[in-house]
Amino acid sequence: MNKFGIGQPVLRDEDIKFISGKGLYTGDIYLENQTYMYVLRSNIAHGEIKNIDISEALNSEGVINIFIGKDLSEAGIKDMPTNFKAKNKDDSDMFTPERSAIAIDIVRHVGDPIAIIIAETTEYAKNASELIDVDIEELPSVTSASEAIKDDAPQVWNNAKNNLCFDWEMGEEEKANKAFENADTVVEIELINNRIVPNSMETRGAIASYDKESNKYELRCSSQGVHSIRDRVSELLNIEAKDLRVITTDVGGGFGMKLFNYPEYICSLFASKKIGRPVKWISERTEAFLSDTHGRDHLTKAKMALDKNGIFLGVKINTTANLGAYLSNFAIFIPTLAGTAMLAGCYKTPAIYVNVLGVFTNTPAIDAYRGAGRPEASFVIERLVDIAGIKTGLGPIEIRRRNLIPANEMPYKTALNHTYDSGDFISNMELAVKDSDWESFNNRAAISLKNNKLRGIGLSTYIEACSGGGPEEATIILEKDGNITLHIGTQSNGQGHETAYKQILCEYLGVSPEKMTVIQGDSDLIAFGAGTGGSRSVPVGGAAIKVASENIIGQTKIIAAKKLNVDENLIKYKEGLFNVEGTNLTISLEDLAKESDIPIKVSNQWTPPNFTFPNGCHICELEVDKDTGHIEIKKYTVVDDFGLVINPNMLAGQVHGGIAQGIGQAIYENTVYDEENGQLLSGSFMDYALPRAEDLINVDIRWNMVPCETNLLQIKGAGEAGAIGAPPAIINAIVNALNIDHIDMPATPNKVWSRIHKN
Questions:
Q1: I want to staple 140 with a disulfide (CB 3.0 to 4.6 A). Which of 154, 350, 547, 574 is the partner?
Q2: Is 495 left (phi over 0), alpha (psi -120 to 50) or beta?
């Protein structure tokens, strides 16, 4: 086996530069004659702009120019579109509002851009912003989706009655109704999936420049894919895509939030052309709270019908999804097709009906956040299943054992039209139960109780749809010195893609990793790319690399045959060497490259025929301090099926990271708005809690590899998995510890303490 190939636990290649301070992030870049942009943002949640006076600010020290929304509009800059639309259940069109990069007449959330100041330094720009006289007539605001949809609620958009963007459905309502008519048991739950602020380690940033001679723009930004940014931004600027180069260097976390086009990218490019100098903008942390897309924020009512044996007959779910004030790129897709279609979970539920209401509020836009709809779906179904286990007396394990889809029924088509190609859900659970030492839990709970602690254990199964969509392209260049250069259109955000790609190249080409270079993040160098998101980079990009590797070997085999003066059919390739069968005639790939006049270049795309379906089981065991409500996770067990594993070390890192984010959502992260004026009350790390290292625990992980049938490498993807499985497992454990029906996320110490001592 190749010591650096597929399946090997090699160390991440990228870490050497990161730990030695040689990473290159957007904030590290300086362009000659660079200026700085500061965004003046609305300090009220909803209001009519009556007047903006920039005259004093324009004359202040260090200021180059100031632009408002009218300037962009008069220059022909287009409104920012959403990239997905849903039909209402009556087949009418959803309401689609217009959004300018800078607010012109109305501001609709705290943080809405009002003006951009371009100055010689950020401090000069900030100082000038305080001299801008903005007259805004405050209007009533609403931040809660459940309140926004009421008849007497303030209107975010005048033409969206009851603030309704869409009323969408999926599944068969009549079939689901019949299932409930025939049910022996019905269980119900109402729950909140709390709003999350992504809080990537590196905030968003942009450096824009414009070359007058070539009439070409350049945007350097922290992104999850340069090509999608290029295509969307160029359209808004009314230019050809080829006239905009987008470059992304190292990225300090994305989690979905950095996929999208944002107003600051448009504004910086516009300003750069206007002033004839580069423009740099780096978001401050509080600014990120107010301007990045947020995640989740659903209110869901769900119920399940079961027969006398505890077999699932049907599920009905109603969700009210907060969309924020504006529609971000994939905002509509997340609570509809992305998430809702996964509400079948890992179970044989024959009838499912889902109704989703998308609602506008005076808050930042909601879009993809790690898992992008799938964690929301998993949380609903896994909480519902746990309640069914309690009500039927079967408990959390047996209720699942009776309803999980068996491996021998794969491929399995769900009631929501996904076809799972492979998986062994029952085995995942049984292995996790064994590894967690579930049988001895009561003994540990008794010891905890003696120490004034309540011990709980919770289980969740999960499945997600990922690695689907369009193609990915890999270009492999065999350089004249024998080195390999890979161009690929994904974008690393800290996942370790460079190492994984080198492992795949090593597996199929047999070239040592020291001779490989991976290039991402440049729309001029790389012809095509779908970026990173939806756990698709390595499954889809890796498959494209395999195809391109095979074609490189095919091309060079012809050259090798000529060099060795033999029929190419007699030549075999293994670990970097062409060998003529039955002889000692050989020539290396490296030597062939050195004898070539030009580099040998191959580009190939690979399109997934269907989604892949990573799946697994999480078990969380925790203690609750009765006196304080503090939660301490004591043991965390995971069995995951990600298909073929490229690198178990990196995969474990992905799972650990996802679980950390799941712990954050379940216990700590709470986005709070003032109900009266729409102010964000948790807009800094003083008020918004993230899990710390001391809150986390080593995770016991086991791989239960069932090869994927729809991926060329048999990979299923993994990046979002931990964030999907963790929240329901944690909440199920808390509910078990407290012996209650439900507690909403985040289960903060105060909330937990109140439930313990409510009497």
A1: 154
A2: alpha
